[in-house]
């Protein structure tokens, strides 16, 4: 392995790319380096230039600016690319990168549909390139602790059920001008693959699988009620969902989420095991399940209650969890003491490229399984059927995705 820093490109320089830059700065401050962003690429040259400036300001990097990824791949010697693009562009640009010999870290969800994601997984196998799906939430100390609590500690016994209910009023609309592009593509199912269930909701899909294993079947109802009318998922992106999930392990759970519920906000997240429960008590819009707004250093909180009345805070459980880790495991999971999922997922990618790890925690196939859960939820809401996730994963069912696949020629 040469001592030269790895040469990386950031492709897609919008909202989340800026968050990736801050995560890279977090790594740099911990002495975790050995990489440089040598190029940025965005179809919107202003976005690319602004990100180049941010990289210069925060990391001291001076990337070359490109507006087309083909030109970037043609001209720039690269080891890896970090893709922060609208979902409909993931499969083509990730595949082009891998065909050009470049390893890829791709933002969630893996692709716009199962067929798109499968194409990416196959490209990774064909080219022998790394394809890692960026999923920061399961890497945070809070979710790692909950995973340990549910799967290893035995503290609350065998997982049985969970309830995840979150509702809040719609945000005030500013209808004074055209919607910014970063909102527009999210409203276009052909570009986004769905609505909020596949956007930030994808994190829930991944976290639920991380905590409790694969889901066997789902039944879902979706509505768009912000307009004042109750409109079905066929007509408009959802703002309200109700999902019943049956896991292969037998666990049953209920996920209800509305961003258009007038009146009082409400949040209730609780897991029940055969000996007790875990309640999420984080007093913030970020919770154990969804940490997008979490800043490095902010902590989740929770309460474990056992049948005999004993209680533990999540911080106490985290202490037990951390005590169970060997120094090597602790360094692998929280490199340099990092506690920001974005920084940790980027560091995993760097170590994969350096040959210090063998495979991504969330590789293409793992990413595809989480996407299949999200698409099964749409399939159920769209058809009114109970849907088996395996049928969506294998392509046996794809009514909801069919027009999206057709649009992209998949
Ligand atoms: N992990 C998280 O918590 C999280 C949060 C937000 C977004 N995301 C994911 O990040 C990705 C990007 O989301 P975002 O919020 O940054 O979107 P965004 O709209 O803010 O940014 C997308 C950028 O891609 C650029 N772009 C569009 N077409 C392009 C092309 N052909 N070539 C190069 N650039 C092009 C746009 O100009 C824009 O700058 C999505 O996959 C999204 O799901 C993840």
Automatic annotation (TrEMBL):
Protein family according to the UniProt entry: Belongs to the Gfo/Idh/MocA family.
Organism of derivation: Litorilinea aerophila
Stated name of the protein: Gfo/Idh/MocA family oxidoreductase
Keyword Oxidoreductase attributed: yes
GO molecular function per UniProt: nucleotide binding; oxidoreductase activity
Ranges for domain Gfo/Idh/MocA-like oxidoreductase N-terminal: 7-133
Ranges of residues in domain Gfo/Idh/MocA-like oxidoreductase C-terminal: 154-387
Gene3D superfamilies linked: Dihydrodipicolinate Reductase, domain 2, NAD(P)-binding Rossmann-like Domain
Keyword tags: Oxidoreductase
UniProt cross-references to Pfam families, sorted A to Z: GFO_IDH_MocA (PF01408), GFO_IDH_MocA_C (PF02894)
């Amino acid at each position: 392995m040469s001592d030269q820093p790895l040469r990386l490109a950031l492709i897609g320089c919008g909202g989340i790319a800026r968050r990736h830059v801050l995560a890279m700065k977090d790594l740099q401050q911990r002495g975790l380096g050995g990489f440089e962003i040598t190029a940025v690429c965005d179809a919107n040259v202003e976005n690319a230039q602004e990100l180049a400036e941010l990289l210069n300001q925060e990391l001291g990097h001076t990337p070359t600016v490109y507006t087309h990824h083909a030109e970037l791949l043609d001209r720039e010697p690269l080891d890896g690319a970090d893709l922060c693009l609208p979902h409909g562009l993931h499969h083509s640009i990730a595949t082009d990168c891998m065909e050009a010999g470049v390893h890829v870290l791709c933002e969630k969800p893996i692709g716009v549909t199962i067929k798109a994601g499968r194409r990416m997984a196959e490209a990774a196998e064909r080219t022998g390139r790394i394809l890692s799906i960026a999923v920061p939430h399961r890497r945070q100390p809070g979710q790692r602790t909950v995973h340990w609590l549910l799967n290893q500690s035995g503290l609350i016994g065998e997982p049985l059920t969970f309830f995840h209910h979150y509702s809040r009023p719609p945000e005030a609309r500013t209808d004074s001008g055209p919607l910014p592009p970063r909102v527009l593509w999210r409203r276009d199912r052909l570009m986004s693959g769905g609505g909020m269930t596949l956007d930030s909701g994808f994190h829930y899909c991944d976290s639920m699988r991380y905590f409790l294993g694969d889901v066997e079947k789902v039944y879902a109802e979706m509505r768009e009620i912000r307009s004042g009318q109750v409109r079905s998922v066929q007509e408009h992106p959802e703002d309200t969902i109700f999902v019943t999930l049956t896991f292969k392990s037998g666990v049953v759970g209920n996920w209800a989420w509305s961003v258009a519920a007038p009146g009082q906000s409400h949040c209730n997240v609780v897991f029940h095991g055969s000996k007790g429960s875990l309640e999420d008590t984080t007093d913030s819009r970020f919770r154990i399940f969804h940490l997008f707004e979490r800043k490095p250093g902010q902590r989740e909180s929770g309460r474990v209650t056992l049948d005999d009345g004993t209680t533990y805070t999540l911080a106490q459980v985290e202490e037990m969890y951390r005590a169970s880790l060997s120094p090597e495991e602790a360094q692998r999971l929280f490199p340099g003491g990092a506690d920001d999922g974005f920084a940790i997922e980027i560091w995993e990618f760097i170590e994969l490229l350096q040959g210090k790890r063998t495979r991504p925690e969330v590789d293409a196939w793992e990413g595809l399984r989480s996407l299949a859960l999200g698409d099964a939820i749409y399939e159920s809401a769209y058809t009114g059927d109970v849907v088996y996730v395996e049928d969506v994963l294998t392509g046996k069912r794809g009514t909801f995705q069919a027009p999206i696949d057709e649009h992209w020629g998949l």
